[in-house]
What we know:
Helix 3 crosses helix 4, helix 6 (205-229) crosses helix 7 (254-272) and helix 10 (313-329) crosses helix 11 (356-363). Strands 1, 4, 5, 6, 7, 8, 9, 12, 13 and 14 form a ten-stranded mixed beta sheet that branches. A hairpin with an 8-residue loop joins strand 10 (192-193) and strand 11 (202-203). The chain has helices at 21-28, 32-38, 53-67, 92-100, 117-130, 205-229, 254-272, 278-295, 301-306, 313-329, 356-363, 365-370, 377-385, and strands spanning 6-13, 17-20, 43-45, 75-81, 107-111, 138-147, 160-169, 175-177, 183-186, 192-193, 202-203, 245-248, 333-340, 344-352, 373-375, 402-408, 411-416. The protein is 39% helix and 23% strand. It is built from 13 helices and 17 strands. It is of the alpha+beta class. The structure holds 3-hydroxy-3-methylglutaryl-coenzyme A. 3-hydroxy-3-methylglutaryl-coenzyme A binds next to helix 2, helix 6, helix 7 and strand 13.
Amino acid sequence: MRQRVGIESLAVAVPHRYLDLEDLARARGVDPAKYTQGLGAKQMAVAEPGEDAAALAATAAKRLIENNSLDPANLGMLVVGTETGVDHSKAVASYVQGMLKLPRGMRTFDVQHACYGGTAGLMAAAEWIASGAAAGRSAIVIASDIARYELNSPGEPTQGGGAVALLVSAEPDLLELDFGMNGVFSMDVHDFWRPLGRREAVVDGHYSIACYLEALSGAYRGWRERAIAREMIRPKDLPSEQLARVVYHVPFCKMAKKAHAQVRRCDIEDTRGVTWNEALDAQEAPAMTASFEKQVASTLGLCAQVGNAYTASLYLGIAGLLEKEAAALEGERIGLFSYGSGCCGEFFSGVVGKKAAQKMAAAKLGNVLAQRERIRFDEYERVLKLPPGEPLQGIHAAPGTFRYCGSQDFRRVYAAG
Length: 417
Ligand code: HMG
């Protein structure tokens, strides 16, 4: 029998402050509808310097361990997917291990590939377990990032940040992965990148959307071929419609709409042997909208409140979906698409576990969001203009969280609340 593997439970940490995108639009002299409807965004998390990727990762992992009464002695791997790490050499995973005082007999490492790093880490952990090398142990995989663009740039309304910690094990109570069905697509492109020494990303925005959609088409077709070969999907009806929900990497919520339309276009072209054209576009528009509402809309709740969280974005989508619909989706197959600029895309799927609702109740997502505070535009600008590495005064961590509070002799110091 095939080894069961997947996500047993999850926990989320987000910066404690956020900016409403209507406030940002007004301050920038932009029609708020461009952000709220054109990009589908409502709010974006604003991380303070103390809330770096390591502090958020440790906070999420602490919640995962405490909410699920995990025995750290049973962990054999700690992986952090991040593109906003805090050191050129030392892994965020090492900082997390230290902050949480985790046992030393475990593999710790970071994975970097833009927003794809979390998924690369998840697959490394899942394959470690499925291979038998884990010998009954579990892994924690954390996706943690702060998304930053230049002030006043087109990317500005697509910032955000957050961390999602996943317990990956042979008891996938939340989501059992369909092992060996993943479709992948990668190519060398400059759609979005962050040269060494820069805090803000450089991005060719419209090209990055085209790259995302190209990677999605390739990865989705790869997954579909394997899913049909394994008879998990019927080839005749539209294959994507057989997924109860599809969760996409969400740099801004409207991207999920573009992505879902692309997946349906792939299905229609390939199953009907037609080439996409304007007439088809008009004819299919009502069905596109209906399928988006049914399969995707409920995955966007958390992403619309947090903004882009790079590696964590897909996993915030899963958390938001299961927070709302875990009970209704138990036993159902969902599709997942991870995209990292540069680029690599992976389409995979999993079946929602029988204990998903119970596991989501333990994650207490409502509390995580309820503790947030809305800030004004001028405070947002002040925080983003703070120079990097400035000594931090009077930083303290709220109960249950970690904060970066400055460096001594180049050693980063974190406070625990
Ligand atoms: P822009 O060029 O300022 O916006 O930046 P636009 O002119 O393209 O308008 C956006 C949408 O708003 C359009 O809708 C407009 O029609 C609409 P669409 O045609 O796309 O459906 N619009 C309005 N709607 C209502 N009322 C109005 C109005 N005005 C316009 N008044 C862009 C948009 C996304 C390019 C920019 O925000 C950006 O560069 N963002 C960062 C890059 C990005 O998020 N790329 C996504 C794909 S790459 C990716 O996902 C990887 C990433 O996460 C990084 C990683 O992997 O690490 C980014």
